[in-house]
Amino acid sequence: MSDAVTRLPPRRAGLVRHSQWGDDVVRKSGINLEALDRSTRPQDDLFRFVNGTWLDTTEIPGDRARFGTFDILREVSTARVRDLIEGAARAAEDEAPGTPKRQVGDLYASFTDTDRIEELGLAPLQALLSQVAGIDGVDSLARALGQLARDGVPGAVQHFVSPDERSPEHYVVYLEQGGLGLPDESYYREDKYADVRTAYVAHIGRLLGLAGIPEADEKAARILALETLLARSHWDTVSNRDAVKTYNAHSFDELKALAPQFPWETWLSGLRAPSGAFDKVVVRQPSFVSGLGEALESADISDWRSWLTWHVMSEFASLLPESFVDEDFDFYGRTLSGQPENKERWKRGVSVVESCVGEAVGQLYAERWFPPAAKARMQELVGNLVEAFRRSFSSLEWMSPETRTEAIAKLDAFTPKIGYPDVWRDYSAIEIDASDLAGNVRRSTAFEIDRNLAKLGQPIDRTEWFMLPQTVNAYYMPSMNEIVFPAAILQPPFFDLEADDAVNYGGIGAVIGHELGHGFDDQGSRYDGTGALRDWWTEADRERFDALSQRLIEQFSRYTPAGLSEDHKVNGALTVGENIGDLGGLQIGYSAYCIATEHGGMPEVDGFTGPQRFFMGWAQVWKGKAREAEAVRLLAVDPHSPQDLRGNAVRNVTEFHEAFGVKPGDDMWLDEDERVRIL
To answer: Domain Peptidase M13 C-terminal, which positions (predicted)?
Structure first.
């Protein structure tokens, strides 16, 4: 740490008069000065300098495993959605059956009617449990797995429909590994999760016992053994993010040859898949499918029966009487994530409604909470970011002219979606009954399965969204070459219609740059502008890119998140794509900020220069903290780096060093030859 002292600005909130919008427009800085820790130098820890007081004075709510900017905004969004849902519930009787407001209202009512839920007990699951109890061989197991998938019970192998990554003008079915109740395969083999496995077996036994299942404890141990067998064939998290390795196209006959022990036709019959739906299927983990076939031969059918009974109970536990809800939360909330308290029932009710008829709620949300002016300003932001990418591609030293031409063509072809979809989903075919919670959830799941399978053979629906307007998040979809920014994330500190450009470009601008950057990260760069999985790089460019990615993997693998011991390191190989996105977002976001202020300049506000506020805006976005158990869990399964390390990713950006005068000896200093710039 350097002993140099940097003068910090006084505690005052400033407004800036910005010529870009005319002399009569006044913009606020957008930085939360009350959150700053002025005893920390930004040259040593930007994340703590920007968020330290908040970190020290904020307790993680009891119903949260982690808490930060995203969670704060989710609380706001959830409260707004609650208001809309409860309004719909009050008006439900005046609405015709099948109308969005009636469906939203009746579904929420079915979740909040706790007296009815307690009265019914296990009755809503009896048909499912009886079906499982009748399994007497592999054929009846396969049929039950197909039928129960329609009810929302994930089986040993799961399916989804998406554009074919080798032929993105057509839909295809993908098959994905499954069958586990713990977060991923590492929990079944690594010694550090031994206590979790012990707690998992105890949890299974207690939940089965609540359901009156005989010999519950003995069955729990055998269920863990069966899942451990399945986990041996599971691919790990790093392999699963490899776009090329996980694209394995097969005909239906080839699929059957991978696991001849599994009655595929029987499973499809139970799933009610249309004829020909699986004529071509992309198997993401072929060795798992083969391993599943071997497990069907080696494991006793009674163990499969117990395993499936457990997964039915686990999937629906949160919809059952309070004793089941409490037991389910005790393991998946307290044990796995360290979360002391379950969410209030109304919050859980909002989640159920959103999972079943989410766009019906989203339509109400967008009408009330997303002004047209916000969309217009966002479109301007996106335009500047695209231009920043174009300029970056023209100057990247490692990118050849051939690859640059393809990269710009991909950039020109990408689609931004902002706020909410142009076409809303029609849920009117779902029967929603205010007295049948579990039935509502089951019918909505079957609706989604049928809706997705019906896409096969149809043109790609480019109006479809895979995130709700009320969701505080964003995504890039490589096979569609599109970025999507729901309305709920477009609010402070990500985006403030009244704020100066510096914080908006450091917040939502860099986040947009991050999502756009996924089109050019270690996996997204394998897709061309049409969304096809195609190698459009020169061999030399790919080697140079991979070398830069490896440097980033090695850099982040040295980091330990704040609050954990040194034996808990970031998995640099798992997080490399998101780290590339963060660095690209920062670099491109800053360039776009320069473009936006070419004529109006970068004013100083609150004693901070425009460039300083840009990087502070970035660190402000990642404000957050996690309980120890959750932080450890996320290191195993989350492709994103911990929040403090994301906030301090700026150490790779030369403009950050220049903005704050970072020097050798400062904790945030990286030698120039160690800084990684990919985009």
So the answer is: 473-676
